[in-house]
Automatic annotation (TrEMBL):
Alphabetized PANTHER family for the sequence: HTH-TYPE TRANSCRIPTIONAL REGULATOR YBHD (PTHR30419), LYSR-FAMILY TRANSCRIPTIONAL REGULATOR (PTHR30419:SF29)
Domain HTH lysR-type: 1-25
Keywords: DNA-binding, Transcription, Transcription regulation
Protein name per Swiss-Prot or TrEMBL: Hydrogen peroxide-inducible gene activator
Source species: Arcticibacter svalbardensis MN12-7
């Protein structure tokens, strides 16, 4: 009834009710987009007021890529919510592409993703550089080496995330063997989970490339099957991204501090790394 009343007031049809499910009309899409901008500006007004009062409150809608979320979020959620009880965190796991899309239409306030993205509509706040390491099955000959370089990776043995995950592209860029992938692999398993990659290596054979934070869950025996890269160590840049018009700076600053405080000294250290790009 409220939508019908709004349509009467505006003198236009916002939704095409002849279709199932109901979809916005051409003008309806424009009105919805503008309404999102108005709501975002209302949030920004609240942010200005709260900043003046030096009080953190409100809602922060965060999108996090699946290769970061399970390893970073448990370290910060309890601490953050204890320090800032008036801030409500709403968190979803999405791919980088989904996070960027939702930021642009105001469905998310910020994202935690691998950068750089080279998108002028977004602001990037680098947090840390996360090294990659190789994880191998017990029988894999790569374990004879104490450390490795990219040339030691056999693409036919490699377990990968499925299409759409930036880490997949980063790993293939590291190997420089993207074109060989389909030719050499007789079996391909598609997954969006780093944990599944670990299990496939453990229960079958082969190798995978893991981000540093995911190594914290490995047992002592599993850690014996991790091999580090020689310098320059391949790594990914992890950043908080926001729309360029986003104004909840004080909450983002608090989130940034909480994340940095959760990292080990080794992760915080500035070492020689080769930053891999993977978002396409």
């Amino acid at each position: 009834m409220q939508i019908q009343k709004l349509e009467d007031n505006l003198g236009v049809i916002l939704f095409d009710r002849s279709k199932q499910p109901v979809v916005p009309t051409e003008i309806g899409v424009q009105v919805i987009d503008q309404a999102r901008l108005v709501l975002a500006e209302a949030d920004n007004l609240n942010e200005i007021i709260h900043s003046f009062k030096k009080e953190l409150s409100g809602t922060l809608k965060i999108g996090v890529i699946p290769t970061v979320a399970p390893y970073l979020l448990p370290k910060i959620i309890l601490s953050f919510t204890s320090k800032y009880p008036k801030v409500q965190l709403l968190i979803w796991e999405f791919t980088t592409e989904q996070i960027v899309q939702k930021l642009k239409v105001g469905l998310l306030d910020c994202g935690i993703v691998s950068t750089p993205l080279d998108d002028k509509t977004l602001n990037e706040l680098p947090l840390f550089y996360e090294p990659f390491a190789l994880y191998a099955s017990k029988d894999n000959p790569v374990l004879k080496r104490k450390s490795i370089v990219a040339e030691n990776i056999e693409i036919k043995d490699l377990w990968l995330l499925n299409e759409g995950h930036c880490m997949r592209n980063q790993v293939l860029n590291l190997c420089s063997k993207k074109a060989e992938l389909n030719k050499l692999k007789l079996f391909e398993y598609n997954t969006g989970s780093v944990e599944t990659l670990k299990r496939m290596v453990d229960l079958n054979s082969g190798i995978t490339i893991l981000p540093e934070l995911s190594l914290s869950d490995l047992s002592k025996e599993q850690l014996k099957r991790v091999r580090r890269f020689k310098d320059p160590v391949p790594a990914r840049e992890i950043s908080i991204i926001t729309h360029r018009n986003f104004l909840k700076r004080s909450i983002i600053t608090a989130l940034e501090k909480e994340i940095l405080d959760s990292l080990t000294d080794e992760m915080k250290a500035s070492t020689k790394k080769e930053i891999l790009e993977g978002f396409m």
